[in-house]
Each structure stands twice: as structure tokens, then as C-alpha cells.
Design a protein that fits this description.
alpha/beta; Quinone Oxidoreductase, Chain A, domain 1; 2 domains; 7-stranded mixed beta sheet; 10 helices; 17 strands; ADH-like_N; ADH-like_C
Length: about 325
């Protein structure tokens, strides 16, 4: 089969399309003939050597295709070996494409628990783009933060893939959504996705500005912080509110007002990508509430995986970049 093979760590040029052996059969695993794969920034980190992947290696976490054993159309959960506890992943947990061959190929093999039926309303490209960002946002907002119908949510970092998918999920849940973004255009994109309004987080008083946009002006029930601005995010909460954190690309350390935190009765929740239980919850929400799919920016043939990585690193597109075998 053909695959985009990472021949070494480095730039996009390290991805070379070549023929490799097809996955071998093993108990509990299923081969999937891929119809589309989606890029994530995580793939760039794999390519750069962050996760010490074996070489040569096929990266790629997201994909959708057809089971070779049953012919069922499926999408793939890239969260492997989650373990027995839903509260947190076990010691063997990994993301598909880290050390296990990923989805930059015509076929991929994954544990059967990592497969789910493709939503009928989603195209192949949309289905391939959903799992990683979708299950990450579902776990953050629903499993961890417990966001419910009628609550209010502030999303920090409007315009990115996580923030956009978080808007889609929160709207489907029935929450009131406000965003904090770096530019008016990114706030506009979030509003197109379903957010009610937004503020610029380049303004020093952005938490106070956002707080005034909450339904009663007292603050938000939940703040989703995928960038690491904990101390500022807490300022936008109502008493008893919760901050759920899933990233640190702006700041990896935070200074907290401990006394103010416990007098505010706040909750601080950490999260990562979800497991099979979160995946099932996400897809139930897609079917029952019509969660909008991730936006698609552009599709490349598998043979142009290097060009697809260059496009993603350029950061000029809004939406997911797709590979088509």
C-alpha cells in the first residue's frame, strides 16, 4: 500500500510517499481502508521528533474509511489503549501516529474499540477531521466541566481548531457562548460558528469585558482555556464557576491568587484527549443534536503530504487540512 512515510525528524521534506507493507492481522484489531485523513498540529510535533517515534514511521492521528472485515463506514478514535478508568488514561495510553502507524496511508490498523460508525450527515473529509478535536472538546466541556443546557461558556483563543469545535459542541449542548480572540476576524469566525459575541484578549481588561457579556453580568459558568492563561481566565468566572484547561501554547506556568480562588469556590480542571466513552458521547451528540462538523480548508492527495504540512505550518487557512488516499 502507499503511505506518507517519515524518513527522519525535521521539516516537511522528511515526509516521502512510498510503498510499504499492509498492516498484518492480529486479534482485537481491525484494518480500515482510508477514504480521508486529517492533519493536526500534533502531527507536526511527531515529525519534528517530539515523541521519539520509530523511524521510518507513518504519522497521522485522524481518519475515516471502510472496515475491511465488515464493509462498515467508520471514523477512527486516535486515543489508543486508554485503559479501564474513565477518569484518566492509563500508563500505556498513546495517540495514533506517535509510535503506532498512523493514518497518512491507504490503510491503517487500530483496536476495534477505536472505531465508530460514520455520521450520515458528515462527508468523508468532515468525518476524518472530527475525532481528535471533537473528542478533546467533548471531554473538556461535557465530561470534565459538565456543561449543560442554559449555562454560559467563555472560550479563550477564538479562531483555532479547538475553539471552533468547542463552539459547535457548546451550541449543540444549549450553552450561551462568548469568545476571547486575538483579532476581530477570528472573533467573527467564532460568531459564524455560533458564538454570540467576543472580546479581544489583547486588551488588558479582557476578562472584565467578557464578564460583562455573560448572561447576568456576574461571570461565566465555565471558561475553556486551551492556551494556559489560568490566572486571567479565573477572573471571568462567576462564583462557583469552573475553568477547564487543555493547552499551554501561550503560557506553561501560572501564578494564582490562592485566597481569591478558594473564596470564589472555583474549580480548576485539567484534561487531554478523551477515550472510548467520550467518543461514544460525542457521536451521540452529533446524531441527537446535529453538531456542526469541523470546517475544511483544503484537501491534498496523499502524495503531497509534505505540501499539506507546509500549508498547515503557514497558518493561513481556517479549517482542517485533509489528505486523500
Amino acid at each position: 500500500m502507499r503511505a506518507a512515510v517519515m524518513t527522519g525528524f525535521g521539516g516537511p521534506e522528511s515526509l516521502v510517499c512510498q510503498e510499504i507493507e499492509s498492516p498484518g492481522a492480529r486479534p482485537g484489531w481491525v484494518d480500515v481502508e482510508l477514504r480521508a485523513s486529517a492533519l493536526n498540529w500534533h502531527d507536526v510535533l511527531v515529525r519534528r521528533g517530539r515523541y521519539n517515534s520509530p523511524l521510518p514511521h507513518v504519522p497521522g492521528a485522524d481518519g475515516a474509511g471502510v472496515r475491511t472485515d465488515t464493509g462498515e463506514e467508520v471514523l477512527i478514535l486516535p486515543s489508543l489503549f486508554w485503559g479501564d478508568r474513565s477518569q484518566a488514561p492509563g500508563d500505556e495510553w498513546e495517540i495514533l501516529g506517535d509510535t503506532t502507524r498512523g493514518t497518512y496511508a491507504e490503510c491503517v490498523s487500530v483496536p476495534e474499540e477505536c472505531l465508530a460508525p460514520r455520521p450520515e450527515s458528515y462527508s468523508w473529509e468532515q468525518a476524518a477531521a472530527l475525532p481528535l478535536v471533537g473528542v478533546t472538546c467533548f471531554r473538556a466541556l461535557v465530561t470534565r466541566a459538565g456543561l449543560t443546557d442554559g449555562e454560559s461558556l467563555l472560550i479563550v483563543g477564538a479562531g483555532g481548531g479547538v475553539a471552533t469545535m468547542a463552539v459547535h459542541i457548546a451550541v449543540a449542548v444549549g450553552a450561551h457562548v462568548v469568545v476571547a480572540g486575538s483579532t476581530p476576524s477570528k472573533i467573527g469566525l467564532a460568531q459564524q460558528a455560533g458564538a454570540e459575541s467576543g472580546v479581544l484578549h489583547s486588551d488588558d481588561d479582557w476578562p472584565a469585558q467578557a464578564k460583562r457579556l455573560s448572561p447576568d453580568g456576574r461571570g461565566f459558568d465555565v471558561v475553556l482555556d486551551p492556551v494556559g492563561l489560568w490566572e486571567r481566565s479565573v477572573e471571568a468566572l462567576r462564583p462557583g464557576g469552573r475553568v477547564v484547561v487543555l493547552g499551554a501554547n501561550v503560557a506553561e506556568e501560572a501564578r494564582m491568587d490562592v485566597r481569591g480562588f478558594y473564596f470564589g469556590q472555583f474549580s480548576l480542571l485539567g484534561t487531554t484527549m478523551g477515550g472510548p466513552q467520550d467518543f461514544r458521547g460525542l457521536l451521540d451528540l452529533v446524531v441527537e443534536r446535529g453538531v456542526r462538523p469541523p470546517p475544511i480548508a483544503r484537501a491534498f492527495p496523499l502524495s503531497e503530504a509534505a505540501a499539506a504540512h507546509r500549508a498547515m505550518e503557514a497558518g493561513e487557512s481556517f479549517g482542517k487540512i485533509i489528505l486523500l488516499p
